[in-house]
Amino acid sequence: MSENLDSITFHDHTSPGYEWLLPAWVAEERRMKRHMKSDRVYKYFYDPEGKIYNSKSEVIAAWENSGLIAID
């Protein structure tokens, strides 16, 4: 792991702020230390098959492309 990496946390649809995720989907937050600045948080989302998405909008687009109706 990089020395700049402070922490990694995982979330599912039961986590505060991630209630919008479907069951079996996982969100990952990577918090990176930044010199003399506030930490940067990178978010990644994984579907049940392990495919990675870089944003909530990508996740919702994938759901819509598969025929799911997403209400944001």
Automatic annotation (TrEMBL):
InterPro entries: DNA-bd_dom_sf. SUPFAM superfamilies: DNA-binding domain. Signal peptide: none annotated. It is found in: Nucleus. It comes from the Eukaryota. GO terms for molecular function: DNA binding. Keywords: DNA-binding, Nucleus, Transcription, Transcription regulation. GO terms for cellular component: nucleus. Its main location: nucleus. This is Methyl-CpG-binding domain protein.
